[in-house]
């Protein structure tokens, strides 16, 4: 009698039964049949596609020319109102739109050209030895020649000319800002609100500073009189106050006079008290980290380090210029005032920065 719960299959038989069935091989179906496009069969459709491509490339070229015109014709400070956005800089809006249209025309023209006129048949290239013989080279030359002819550039010179013009003119929006110095000369960096007799005030408390209050190792972040806090916004407007905040900021430190190495630094300071621009000469970040033991000033953005005992020369980091020094003295009441303006532009480097006479100082 057979036990219904007894498995009389051997392990080998069970393994063969459980193994997955081997997939049968099948023939390579190959590439699907080529479906011709309308432009392949209808000369009129091909001509329309050619005209459309030329229009797109021409639109790109016109936008590049419009970029150049806008770059020189529109005041960079001109403001306008755009519905849904609010106040906007019209100079930035104009160069942004013209750049976008120039690039969009090239992209759409190339895509439309490829989809309607250029060959779209799929080709399979079999593997072959890496070393090419004369026959293979001849075949490649024939293939390239065939590709040139099938691209229809030899018969559609309008596309070739318009594409070349669009690509050539598109270089203008890229090259012009570089050649022109990324905009007008930064006139604002030549002048600040520091003049002879300007009182130094602590930012943001607006308190004046007596020389006796500046102890050795102490640090004050100061602004010129009339440009601190809400009073500056109310008197000069928010935009002017913001610009002043960006370029007029100064750090005031008292050093041991015996540690100062530069004669100019001594003459432009007062009893070891020196004042330097806080605007980093690398990319304009505020240099506000002072190490009391080493007398180093550090920029938090890219770690440029300046030695305050040696005319704020750079000792580490990407900055390549020392921080400009503000000459200071004291008035009759003992308050620290500026002995004159900065003698060089503050902030990052730019072309012609060191040309004599730019700030009235030879």
Automatic annotation (TrEMBL):
Give one GO molecular function term: oxidoreductase activity, acting on paired donors, with incorporation or reduction of molecular oxygen
Give the compositionally biased regions (Basic and acidic residues).
1-11
Topology of this chain in the membrane = Multi-pass membrane protein
Could you tell me the superkingdom of the organism this chain comes from? Bacteria
A Pfam family found in this protein is Rieske
What keyword terms does UniProt attach to this protein? 2Fe-2S, Cell membrane, Disulfide bond, Electron transport, Iron, Iron-sulfur, Membrane, Metal-binding, Oxidoreductase, Respiratory chain, Transmembrane, Transmembrane helix, Transport
Report the transmembrane regions from the record: 53-74, 90-111, 158-183
InterPro entries referenced in this protein's UniProt entry, alphabetically = QcrA_N (IPR045603), Rieske_2Fe-2S (IPR017941), Rieske_2Fe-2S_sf (IPR036922), Rieske_Fe-S_prot (IPR014349)
Residues folding into a coiled coil are none
Which residues are in the Rieske domain?
273-337
Annotated Gene Ontology cellular component terms: plasma membrane
SUPFAM superfamilies xrefs: ISP domain
Q: Which residues form the signal peptide?
A: none
Localized where? Cell membrane
Family stated for the protein in its record: Belongs to the Rieske iron-sulfur protein family.
Q: Which PANTHER family match?
A: CYTOCHROME B-C1 COMPLEX SUBUNIT RIESKE, MITOCHONDRIAL (PTHR10134)
What function does this protein fulfil?
A: Iron-sulfur subunit of the cytochrome bc1 complex, an essential component of the respiratory electron transport chain required for ATP synthesis. The bc1 complex catalyzes the oxidation of menaquinol and the reduction of cytochrome c in the respiratory chain. The bc1 complex operates through a Q-cycle mechanism that couples electron transfer to generation of the proton gradient that drives ATP synthesis.
Q: What is this protein called?
A: Cytochrome bc1 complex Rieske iron-sulfur subunit
Q: Could you tell me which species this protein originates from?
A: Serinicoccus chungangensis
Its lineage reads: Bacteria, Bacillati, Actinomycetota, Actinomycetes, Micrococcales
